[in-house]
Amino acid sequence: MLLAVLGTWEILVILAIVLLVFGPSKLPQLGEGVGKMLRGFKKEMRAGELEAGKEAAKDEGAPPEIDVTPAPSGDAGPSGEPHG
Fold first, then answer.
1. Helix or strand or coil: residue 6?
2. Which of 63, 81, 83 is nearest to 72 (CA)?
3. Residue 30 near residue 22 (C-beta atoms within 8 A)
4. Spatial distance between the Cα atoms of 61 and 55, rounded to a whole number of angstroms
5. What per-residue confidence (pLDDT) applies to 11?
6. Whether 45 contacts 38, CB under 8 Å
7. Which residue numbers in the chain have pLDDT < 50?
8. Three-class DSSP category at 82
């Protein structure tokens, strides 16, 4: 993850820059926006996992597909090449 690469000092410098750019009055709004974004992302991920689970359960009950391609006709042997 990104936090594993960044050390304590790097994170503090990034937070100081964010504080300077947005100011102390905008930080609560910024945090709220990020929190809403993460909650929405997690909600959609869970919905996708549930849908994938339903698809897998539906596929388990389906009969296996059988290949009904006709066999080659004529002088061809089992490998498909003519005798000769």
1. coil
2. 81
3. yes
4. 10
5. 87
6. no
7. none
8. strand
* Predicted pLDDT of residue 56: 73
As a whole number of angstroms, the distance between CA 34 and CA 50 comes to 24
Residue 26 in 3-state DSSP? coil
Tokens, residue 48: 């996708």
Rounded Cα distance, 57 and 68, in Å: 25
Q: Would the CA dihedral through 80, 82, 83, 84 be positive or negative?
A: negative
In the block, which residue shows the tokens 């300077």?
A: 20
Q: What is the pLDDT of residue 13?
A: 93
Which pLDDT belongs to residue 37?
A: 94
Distance of CA 26 to the CA centre of its chain: 32
